[in-house]
């Protein structure tokens, strides 16, 4: 029997096990009573009409919040979830995307032993503009290209991390002009993954037996959806906007290149303030003192 993936608004994440999100269908009454029907419109940071704001107390909101925070490690106490938005199947185009994802899920399940399409949730890190474009139009070659040439890349495709490894994804986000960071939580059809090595140039399955790539078969920290499947095997599901002052951009294990124009333009006072937030006043003062002492020695 093919794995079932709901495409209605009632399809929700309502279960958390060791930081991993699992699917479970909510009843119509439970879902409609706790969903905020506020759309992303004027004054919102995201303009897509398919997005619905989830309120505190909503089952989906609370599970996703718990999942992100439980995987944030040493910065979890300083991380604040600002908003969680759900991508719905409203509109002809979006409904077609949801239906397509269900069809591909069933197709992959049919060729797998036991009929399991191995559908998981994974975090995708990107700028506000990039995530909004993905929700509206899907993944593009530009999204694939940002991983090319990265020695940590495990193949040419869309890279995501398991839902329980949120710190890896969050470390690759960039704060926008309001100081908010954004993560896209997606449903993924992994099927049967194959092991890919760091720095691999592989861009499609090595044989019809495989459907995706991972960095570790037993405990993956990096999912790779090949570019040929990026808009059939990935369904953008939620946007999480958050603040995490102690978080620094990292390229270790999960890479993201700066794509926000704001990130490339920063005044000296903003740079100093950001360095103080990351390093702390005492450490920053020590670094400056050591730098001056070395300059005195040279002179």
UniProtKB/TrEMBL annotation:
PROSITE patterns: PARP_CATALYTIC. Pfam families: RST. Keywords: Developmental protein, Nucleus, Stress response. It is found in: Nucleus. Residues 33-263 form the PARP catalytic domain. SUPFAM superfamilies: ADP-ribosylation. This is Probable inactive poly [ADP-ribose] polymerase SRO2 isoform X2.
């Amino acid at each position: 029997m093919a794995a079932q993936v709901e495409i209605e608004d009632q399809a929700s994440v309502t279960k958390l096990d060791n930081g991993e999100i699992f699917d479970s269908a909510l009843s119509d009454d439970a879902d409609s009573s706790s969903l905020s029907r506020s759309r992303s419109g004027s004054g919102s940071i995201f303009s897509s009409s398919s997005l619905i704001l989830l309120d505190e107390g909503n089952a989906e909101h609370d599970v996703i919040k718990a999942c992100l925070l439980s995987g944030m490690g040493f910065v979890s106490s300083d991380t604040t979830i600002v908003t969680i938005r759900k991508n719905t199947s409203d509109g002809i185009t979006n409904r077609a995307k949801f239906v397509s994802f269900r069809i591909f899920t069933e197709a992959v399940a049919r060729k797998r032993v036991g009929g399991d399409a191995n559908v998981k949730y994974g975090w995708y890190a990107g700028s506000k503009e990039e995530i909004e474009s993905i929700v509206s139009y899907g993944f593009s070659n530009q999204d694939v290209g940002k991983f090319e040439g990265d020695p940590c890349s495990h193949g040419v495709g869309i890279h995501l991390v398991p839902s329980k490894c949120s710190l890896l994804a969050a470390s690759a986000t960039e704060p926008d002009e309001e100081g908010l960071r954004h993560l896209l939580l997606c449903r993924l059809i992994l099927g049967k993954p194959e092991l890919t090595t760091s720095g691999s140039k592989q861009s499609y399955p090595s044989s019809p037996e495989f459907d995706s790539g991972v960095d570790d078969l037993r405990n993956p920290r990096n999912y790779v959806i090949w570019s040929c499947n990026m808009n059939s095997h990935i369904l953008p599901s939620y946007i999480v906007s958050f603040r995490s002052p102690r978080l620094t951009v990292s390229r270790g294990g999960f890479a993201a290149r700066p794509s926000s124009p704001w990130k490339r333009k920063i005044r000296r006072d903003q740079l100093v303030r950001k360095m103080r937030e990351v390093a702390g006043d005492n450490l920053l003062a020590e670094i400056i003192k050591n730098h001056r002492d070395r300059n005195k020695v040279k002179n």
